[in-house]
Amino acid sequence: MKIDLAYGRTGITVDLPADRTTIVEPRFVPGLPDEADALREALRNPISAPPLTQWLRGDDAVGISICDITRPMPSARVLPVLLAEIEQVVPRDRISIFNGTGTHRANTEDEMRRMVGDHVFENYRIVTHDARDTASLIAVGHTTSGNEVLLNAGFVACTAKILTGFIEPHFFAGFSGGPKMVMPALAGLQTIMRNHGARNIGDPRATWGITHGNPIWEEIRDSALLMPRAFNLNVTLNKTHAITAVFAGDLMASHKAGCAFVHDTAMQAVPRPFDVVLTTNSGYPLDLNVYQAIKGISAAARVCRDGGTIIAAAECWDGIPDHGQYRQLLEEGATPDAILARITEPDFQMPDQWQAQIQALIQRRCDVHLHSSLPDEIVRRTHLTPCPDIEATVRDLLDRAGPDATLCVLPQGPQTIPYLSG
Q: From the candidates 170, 323, 371, 383, which is the catalytic residue?
């Protein structure tokens, strides 16, 4: 059977044995017939909040948080509608757009233009957040668990804050969107490090689809609630990146509604684990590097048997990458156990340790192969096995696992989160 995999900008098609293959995809929801109209309707009739034009004041300084290049958020389609509503009340020179990079690298000018569109890029003030620039941060309080919250000072100074993003399941924060567009998107490195520390990452509740009771999400929520006057605008997307629903209004109420919608469409039950799981990282831009590809691998790990194999198809055109110490942790650790031993040492802290920790925990249980555009020697440095030919690798793995071996395919990667029905 031929299956289209989300890979890079163009995708790839593989031919796999139909009698052994189970395909797991999100329930398809068609794109909205008129995205702009749906966005305006959500802003004018929001959830548990007054219409945006009534919520705003004429003397407000408006700060808009947006996703960076690592997310498929269609900001170029959302921002023009949002800005037109804002400018009915607040003049353009009092509006700033904050690129929520978290700990990721800054985006290039070309990337930023593609993210927001030429008109927005050329006519609005855009600030790229830098979590490592301590001079640009300000302390705003503490979470219930005691984490000091350092945020972008320019964003904090805005009297009206609008959080834009898209909601999908997240591998340790439960769901994306909503409060994540404050922390980690616009937080300081130390705040993110404490939130993403080894103890929190290792908590069994820090996983796909769980918010309340998840120590990572609860700190994210607490951080966002330290911001007075925050208005939320979230969308959901299908595999073509068309907007399928819009959730706007009160931060927590609108995000909760969006998470329920995504849980219903993206979380899919399977009866038993598989010998081999083939996943993607949802294609461009999510599969830009190995660091991001761990999300797709994590989704696959949920339904891969102990001792089974995961094959991840992720283009990784941006490499490993270099915005933290993920590469260093992997190259200095001889085995997954050695990496975990180092990360869980008392007082150990290193940027990007969370991604290395999750990868190592998965590789304790499963072999992981990577089909990418990277040279084989680069792939091996990350403890992954190069997979130049997906079809041949699948056939070989199934043959070795025996006549009853089974294959699961996640063509859209972490936009589908499988789980064992038991």
A: 170
